[in-house]
Write a structure and sequence with these properties.
Layout: E1 3-7, E2 10-13, E3 18-25, E4 33-39, E5 46-51, E6 58-60, E7 68-73, E8 78-83, E9 92-99, E10 112-113, E11 117-122
Parallel strand pairs: 2-11
Antiparallel strand pairs: 1-3, 3-8, 4-5, 4-9, 5-6, 7-8, 9-10, 9-11
Length: 123
């Protein structure tokens, strides 16, 4: 059983930056592909980015491509989401997720989820 804990959220002004972290425990972190999602109030959970177990492959939603960067440190069992040029529409709860396979990564079919961290971007 893998436990995921997100951190790094908060209030930031538009055009600012934040780096989210997701610390994993309870499993062999380097076996898992990792993803980031967000859910705004009243909206579906949205895929943002994913990184393969080795860190060699990354994928991004069009809405964040060029602004967000996903990375991982297997030695620290942590995945990161660097968010730049933030916009008010980026306001949401941000979640990390983990799974073994690397298919259907843009869906919510991930095995393990964190509790989320709130990101609020003011205009």
């Amino acid at each position: 059983q893998v436990q995921l804990v997100e951190s790094g959220g908060g209030l930031v002004q538009a055009r600012g930056s934040l780096r989210l972290s997701c610390a994993a425990s309870g499993g062999t972190f380097s076996m898992y592909n990792m993803g980031w999602f967000r859910q705004a109030s009243g909206q579906w959970r949205e895929f943002l980015a994913a990184v393969s177990w080795s860190g060699d492959s990354t994928y991004y939603a069009d809405s964040v491509k060029g602004r967000f960067t996903v990375s991982r440190d297997n030695a620290k069992s942590t995945v990161y989401l660097q968010m730049n040029s933030l916009k008010p529409e980026d306001t949401a709860i941000y979640y990390c997720a983990a799974k073994i396979g690397f298919d259907k990564i843009a869906t919510t079919e991930w095995k393990y989820w964190g509790q989320g961290t709130q990101v609020t971007v003011s205009s």
